């Protein structure tokens, strides 16, 4: 397939500053289609900011981001001038991307079914019945069909995050971005969310996952990207990361996570 | 006081309820529109909303109503006293409700809008479908207190000739020479209506679906 | 349509006398209302359940009925029950009692905001009740009470306009009278609105200054 030849996401020399603080420094990174890529690194390393740039929730200060070959957010003109795209074009490119947030970000005034079907009705204009049927199918997929009429405040954190995943999947994205999807969960609830993500990976979804779950990264990811102080320091397969750590910063970072499930991989 | 007089007061209180209900609902719609202007970030819109809110909250309602009653005819607009009173009361409560909604809109977590952005909502769609319902839930208790304030403030439309509860009490007091009984009875009816509004508010607040922000 | 503000401003002297009465009644009414409200709240806290209930009823009645109906009852109904008052005392009394009801609720919330433990600590140290109020409760609740009290005081300023309807010669009545003498209703009402707008803005700014002053004092200590 030709679409597999171009990367799902291509970041080229992406820089991001908040005021005088440089958060991302010259990141060049390809996210291959049909694979799971993890972004790991200590807090403040810029991994979440990079993910948010891939969704254009943050605007890169310079550099380009291509989604399936299409520029996102800014169009480079022949003169080299970087023009902000009109909102409709940003929405069109973003339609390829589903996003799952650390804080779930479910809408509190809608049921689980309402959350999952809202965009189908509002954005796609599907009739209520059809939107709800599709939403129900997604809820079944994450194992929450029996919670369809519950409000977010009536669901556990793990259930809320699974609804959030179903909500993103209902728009049929080709790429799923996960921003620390289990960081806000109690440890006993992370498993149910990670299982849904494993299932999604097995189906061949292109996934970019910012995570502290080194165990998950080691067992599911095809590629692991290590960021530190806004730079991409290492990019490779899990074997390369865990068997013979090359970079001293990566080694140091992994050491602090040995207790958290990475030990079995080393 | 005879039952006949009291029933006249009760009938007139229908107008009080009608005028107040109209003002609250129409004022809420205007307040949402003004909030949208304020959130647009446009400087001109921001200035307009600030002056609107400051004026209608800074001038006594009585003066606003008298001004409107003299201004509209001078501009060649002839409306009934009821219509003019409705406009006056609506503009005033719109200003207060805009101010009440400000905190509600500010308290909508930005992540809820980001998730709508990612799903392809336009700014207008996410304003109407996400921000407004959440802001309304967060500020629901202030909406109920505003309804009670407007019920009481609606007594002022008596001054411009709308025959509602206070005007009826005044008219009857003048013709029967029983001001104590009539004004006391009118006061009791206001009190009763306010109690009902408070009870409805409490009942509704407990039943608003998914009140609050999701448990973290 | 002719529109000449000058006609109204030519009567500046009369406007000022109306303004003076508005400000006087407002300040006197607010101060008396604040004091009465504090007494009511304190009696409700320490007077036992019967006093509490006996005061709760009038407070709820005053808060649940329009100010206009209250002053009509007082001014037009008063003479029928042996309470004949001139417009100005009637207006002042009405404003004071009305304000007191709201201020008392503000003080009640203030009392409730002080942790029981602080009062118990004062008891253990041998403070009398009045000493506890003076040295513990009032300073602790000042920050809680100030913003709503400022807000209420500004509301009372706007409510003084209603006193024109019981013929108190304050700002609204004065300016309207000038307007009708000179056949310039619209101009008079514009001037009236602008003067109130300015007064309310100034009062609000003063209130915010006071809040800022007290909150600085508080944060500096902690």
Portion in helices of chain A: 25-40%
Shape of chain A: globular
Task: Just give the CATH class of chain B.
Answer: Mainly Alpha
The rounded Rg of chain A comes to: 19 Å
Give the termini distance of chain B in whole angstroms. 59 Å
What is the makeup of the main sheet of chain A? 6 strands, mixed
Cα-atom radius of gyration of chain B: 20 Å
Average pLDDT metric of chain B: 91
Give a written overview of the molecule:
The complex is a heterotrimer of chains A (266), B (216) and C (222). In chain A, 35% of the residues lie in helices and 25% in strands. Chain A contains 9 helices and 12 strands. In chain A, helix 3 packs across helix 4 (128-141), helix 3 (112-122) packs parallel to helix 5 and helix 5 (157-169) packs parallel to helix 6 (187-202). Chain A starts with 8 loop residues before the first strand and ends in a 9-residue tail after the last helix. The relative contact order of chain A is 0.15. Chain B has a single domain (3-205), classed as MetI-like fold, CATH 1.10.3720.10. In chain B, helix 3 (61-74) crosses helix 4, helix 4 packs across helix 6 (123-138) and helix 8 (165-176) packs antiparallel against helix 9 (179-207). By secondary structure, chain C is mostly helical. Chain C has a single domain, classed as MetI-like (MetI-like fold, Orthogonal Bundle), CATH 1.10.3720.10. In chain C, helix 3 (48-64) crosses helix 5 and helix 7 packs antiparallel against helix 9. Chain C is flat and about 70 Å long. Chain C starts with a helix and ends with a helix. At the B-C interface, helix 2, helix 3, helix 7, helix 8 and helix 9 of B face helix 3, helix 4 and helix 9 of C.
